[in-house]
Amino acid sequence: MDFKIIPSTCSYCGTGCGVLFQVMDGRLIDTLPMKTHPVNEGKLCIKGWNLHEHVISDKRLKSPMIRKDGELQESTWDEAIQTSADKFKSIINDHGPDSVGVLLSAKITNEENYVAQKFARAVIGTNNVDHCARL
Amino acid sequence: MQEQVREWLEQDSVDIFLGYKMVQGHPLPHCFTKENIDEIDDLIVGNARYSLEKMATKIAAAHPELKIGLLTRDCNQRALNVLYVWNQLKPDNIETISVNCCPSKLKEHGDCSYLEPEKAAPLKMMIGIDNNMDVKAAEEFGQEDRYKRWMYELQKCLKCYGCRDICPVCFCKECSLEHTDLIATGSVPPEVPIFHLVRAVHMGGRCIDCGLCEDACPVDIPLRLLYRKVNGIVSDVFDYKTGTSADQSPFNMLGEEVTLELKPI
Question: Is there a contact between B60 and B68 (Cβ–Cβ < 8 Å)?
Answer without folding.
Answer: yes
